[in-house]
Design a protein that fits this description.
heterodimer; A: alpha+beta; ten-stranded mixed sheet; six-stranded mixed beta barrel; 52% helix; globular; B: alpha+beta; Arc Repressor Mutant, subunit A; 55% helix
Chain lengths: 869, 110
């Protein structure tokens, strides 16, 4: 029965049915009295409707009609489709990013069964004197947050004694790698793409250290070579070498990024990788497991699992209670269906900016097309009036017009999707700086959801830009139309055209302001002094060749002998690098640190001439000499301000976990790679013996090109691992501004697109206006109006909506820019220069767009114009 | 007299229970068997035939009529027969329910 209904869609079947109906009705007509059967055409039509495809027939009819009518105005169609493609394409691309961060489920088996355990407690003496104590007081408990870390014995107790979870895993982030308990992959339920994942058998102290690589890391480090299995991996994507190299036993599929997409590309079995087994039995080290994740058994309630874990953790603490009183931890379970959110938190703001920008583009596109349609509908008024007069219902014509809009939208969506496919591989660039990942962990490509989104968006936009013109153009005074006069109704339609124009101008203003603020920020960032001199600086970070500490001096001599090099130094890190292992505890007797940052200074170990080479001014005291040993430190101004009183030189400071006394020999100016961040206290120490990684820095008075080949040769001859290749100060500087540059160019691009669309709108409206007012202008000219006056009439029409839009746009910018406020630098949200520049750009563009139609108006031939009327 | 919604289909099926008929025949039988009370417009009847045919309750075939003219004759299919039985009992239920509610004609009771 359903089949027969579908069969009716076949043209052949329909023709046959039609013929048969006609035949049958003809035969019946002969049987009946004349007129007895009534209106047979209607009967046949109603019979046809019984097939239930009338709506489709009408739709096809409407679509055909729409296609024909769009084909008749190719210029309009092209502009509309391109505008829509830009709008929908931008939104589809942004949605691709939103989907990746917020909608995709974690790529593991039944992620909804996975829960992360965390806890809170006000007296945590069971956690020993580990680093977390003071840090967490300030950081977390005041904010009602929970603590993720567990001691290994506490983890073991949950893992081995619970009845609620099928598997409980412990992971720990070391520099550049994730260490995971042997059951990690079993718990996630994801098999390896290549080789195998590790199992609890691999996870034992003294066992061979094994690791599984993410697809991205495998691609970037090994070029996707399948021979990777069995190879040793000694170094993460960023940072120094591992204490012990890992043997690669497997590669994960591309879709896999673990539970937390923010983590890197190497997942190693935990126990073989730990330097000592001590942390596995240490009750007081609540830093061993950074993350505990469990898979809930089906049918067990979350609350039961939570209570059970809480009891087990308490038991485990009770087995070896701390001497001081404590409050047993209260466990919290967090569902991981969508994965953990380190990546997500960082992505929120960029995505928000992106959404606002693309939303604005789409609205501009809608307003633009609505404006064009309004203008176009006046051209079609006779056609529509005729159809109305012939008995078509208004609803039917509105549906017809909306179908036309829909067709436009769908064409735009198809093209927009193509744009999204082309653009989306660039999306990771918006985020990678935030995460410093070897490769963005996701496959960024529009999928079916994005396609569905685009089509829905197309339908929505069709309503948005099509409804007002459709309603407007069917509200026709038939009698007036037949008399062929340009009635008063044209005026109201024109008012909505102006409103559309004002919307476009307003939204363009917002985008231009955004672009202007970022451009200004970029200029400021490039101009600001960071406390060092990038020009002429070159550095390289390498691994110290084993067993040859004396090579450092030899290398320094070699570097110094290169012609053009004026100064050479060495340190562990490049200037102002802040890495976890550069934190140095500052002891201030009788003072409770406010928070983690307050308790620690950053530090580096350096050789003499470090400040001279980097161009950091020495404010007081002196530089290190070769004679300085441990116990002498140079500090920055921020350290002085925070911790010291009086003349800092010669004062004693207490540093490190043992609060060792050290003497200040010099004070240098603050320097920073992030101008936005208040400089942190920094301690420079003279290194006593060469560290495992060395950054050599040289300063050249001449050009980079003159010295780089020689430097490259020297680095090559070191025959060691290079962590950071030869980098110039300017490169380094510009890398730190990547994100600002990207936003500036992105928003400038959006602003330009918006401006272009708005200009099209201005041009379209004025061209239409000139066409409409040709008779009037003709009369004026016949009565002696000069060209200038005529031009003024036309330009004045655009002045009002442009001014209104501009004012509204500027007003809307202020609250909207709050989301980018802390991405700006040295420029306020209502910066007068940016406002002036955006206004000027807009007015110039508007004037350019208005000029052509205005000129056309001045060339109207009064005779012909009057004849027209 | 107006028909209740959906009643026409049932009436057509009932008409065909006796034997195959063409469209005009169905119309005439309906009128006469209702004692000229039901005058169903052919404009409504014809789509109903199409509807029933699509549903598979009746089938059609070109045959020669009593006056030696070709006409399309409709007959009940087994599915249609079953449908008629259902409709019939539903109808009976409906009528008795309505009758119970309505009771005797008001004003004629004592």
């Amino acid at each position: 029965m359903i089949w027969s209904r579908f069969r009716f869609l076949l043209p052949r079947r329909r023709r046959a049915d039609e013929r048969e109906t006609q035949e049958e009705l003809a035969s019946l007509k002969e049987l009946a009295e004349p007129g007895e059967l009534g209106n047979l055409t209607l009967a046949a039509e109603n019979a046809r409707a019984e097939w239930g495809w009338t709506w489709l027939e009408r739709l096809v009819q409407d679509l055909r009609y729409a296609a024909r009518s769009l084909k008749g105005t190719p210029a309009f169609t092209l502009v509309a489709v391109l505008t829509l493609a830009l709008g929908i394409g931008a939104n589809a691309s942004a949605f691709t990013a939103v989907e990746i961060f917020f909608l995709k489920k974690a790529p593991v088996n039944h992620p909804e069964e996975l829960w992360q355990l965390s806890w809170s407690s006000r007296k945590r003496s069971f956690g020993g004197k580990s680093l977390m104590q003071p840090m967490y007081d300030a950081y977390f408990l005041n904010q009602g947050k929970t603590i993720d870390q567990f001691s290994y014995p506490a983890y073991q107790s949950i893992r081995d004694k619970n009845a609620s979870f099928s598997e409980v895993s412990c992971t720990r982030n070391e520099l550049g790698a994730t260490l995971a308990s042997g059951n990690y992959f079993q718990m996630l339920g994801v098999p390896a793409l290549l080789g195998r994942t590790f199992t609890p058998d691999d996870d034992r102290i003294g066992g061979p250290p094994v690791a599984v690589l993410s697809y991205g890391f495998w691609q970037s480090r090994f070029g996707g070579n399948p021979d990777v299995l069995g190879q040793l991996i000694t170094k993460p994507a960023n940072g120094p070498n591992f204490a012990t190299p890992f043997t690669v036993i497997g590669v994960m599929p591309e879709s896999f990024y673990g539970i937390d997409p923010g983590t890197g590309g190497i997942i190693a079995a935990m126990q073989p990788a730990l330097r000592t087994a001590g942390s596995l039995t240490d009750d007081r080290n609540w830093n061993t497991c950074n993350t505990v994740i469990a898979r809930l058994r089906p049918g067990i309630t979350m609350e039961r699992a939570r209570a059970e874990s809480e009891a087990l953790v308490s038991q485990s603490i009770q087995a070896n209670p701390p001497p001081e009183p404590y409050e047993p931890p209260r466990i919290t379970l967090t569902n991981l269906a969508r994965g953990m959110d380190t990546l997500r938190t960082g992505a929120q703001r960029p995505l928000l900016i992106l959404s606002v920008a693309v939303g604005a583009i789409l609205l501009i596109a809608c307003a633009n097309i609505a404006g064009l349609l309004l203008a176009r509908s006046s051209a079609r008024r006779k056609e529509i009036a005729t159809r109305l007069a012939l008995g078509a219902s208004r609803g039917r014509i509105i549906r017809q017009l909306l179908t036309e809009s829909l067709l436009l939208s769908l064409l735009g969506a198809a093209l927009g999707l193509a744009i999204a496919f082309a653009v989306s591989p660039q999306i990771p660039r918006l985020f990678t700086r935030t995460y410093n990942l070897p490769k963005f962990p996701f496959n960024v490509e529009p999928d079916l959801t994005v396609a569905g989104f685009s089509v829905s968006l197309a339908a929505l936009t069709a309503m948005l830009f099509g409804l007002a013109p459709a309603l407007n153009s069917t509200r026709i005074d038939l009698i007036g139309m037949m008399k062929n006069s340009i009635g008063a109704q044209g005026r109201t339609r024109f008012a909505s055209g102006r409103a559309m124009l004002a919307i476009q101008v307003g939204l363009s203003t917002v985008l231009l302001m955004g672009a202007g603020l970022f451009l200004h920020t970029l200029l400021n960032l490039e101009a600001v002094s960071l406390g060092y001199i990038p020009r002429g600086l070159i550095y390289v970070t390498v691994q110290l060749p084993p067993g040859h500490p004396e090579t450092v001096n030899a290398t320094m001599d070699q570097l110094a002998s290169v012609p053009g090099i004026s100064s050479v130094t060495a340190s562990v890190w490049p200037l102002f690098t802040s890495a976890p292992d550069t934190y140095l505890e500052v002891c201030v007797p009788g003072e409770t640190p406010r928070d983690f940052d307050d308790r620690f200074a950053d530090s580096d170990s350096i050789l003499p001439r470090f400040f001279e080479t980097w161009g950091v001014p020495l404010l007081r005291g002196r530089d290190f000499t070769m004679a300085d040993g441990p116990g002498s430190v140079i500090i920055n101004q921020a350290f002085v301000t925070r911790y010291l009183k009086g003349d800092p030189v010669g004062q004693t400071v207490h540093l490190g976990p043992n609060c060792a006394a050290e003497t200040v020999v010099g004070v240098v100016a603050n320097s920073s790679d992030r101008p936005r961040v208040t400089p942190r206290p920094f301690v420079y120490r003279r290194w006593s013996q060469p560290p495992p990684q060395i950054t050599y820095t040289v300063r050249t008075s001449g050009s980079y090109a003159a010295v780089l080949p020689a430097l490259r040769r020297i680095v090559n001859d070191l025959n060691t691992r290079v962590y950071d290749p030869l980098t110039t100060g300017e490169q380094y500087r510009s890398d730190t501004m990547n994100q600002e540059r990207l936003w500036a160019s992105l928003l400038s691009g959006f602003g330009a697109v918006a401006l272009f669309i708005a200009c099209l709108g201005i041009y379209g409206m004025l061209a239409y206006l000139v066409a409409r007012r040709t008779p009037e202008i003709g009369i004026r000219m016949a009565l002696g109006a000069r060209q200038r006056e005529v031009m003024k009439i036309v330009l004045r029409e655009s002045l009002m909506p442009v001014t209104l839009g501009l004012a509204a746009g500027l007003a809307a910018t202020y609250p909207l820019t709050r989301i980018i406020a802390n991405m700006l630098f040295g420029v306020t949200r209502n910066d007068p220069w940016t406002i002036a520049a955006a206004t000027l750009a807009l007015l110039l563009a508007a004037a350019a767009a208005a000029f052509l139609p205005a000129r056309r108006a001045t060339r109207i031939d009064p005779m012909r114009a009057l004849h027209y009327e | 007299m107006d028909l209740l919604q959906g009643t026409l289909d049932m009436l057509v099926l009932r008409t065909l229970l006796v034997g195959p008929l063409h469209g005009y025949g169905i119309s005439k039988v309906l009128r006469s068997s209702s004692g000229e009370t039901l005058d169903i417009e052919f404009g409504s009847l014809y789509p109903a035939l199409k509807r029933l045919e699509i549903k598979g309750w009746i089938a059609s075939k070109w045959e020669t009529s009593e006056h030696n003219r070709r006409a399309k004759f409709y007959r009940l299919t087994p599915a249609g027969r079953k449908q008629l039985r259902q409709e019939h009992s539903k109808w009976a239920e409906f009528v008795s329910a309505v009758t119970r509610v309505m009771g005797p004609v008001p004003g004629e009771t004592k």
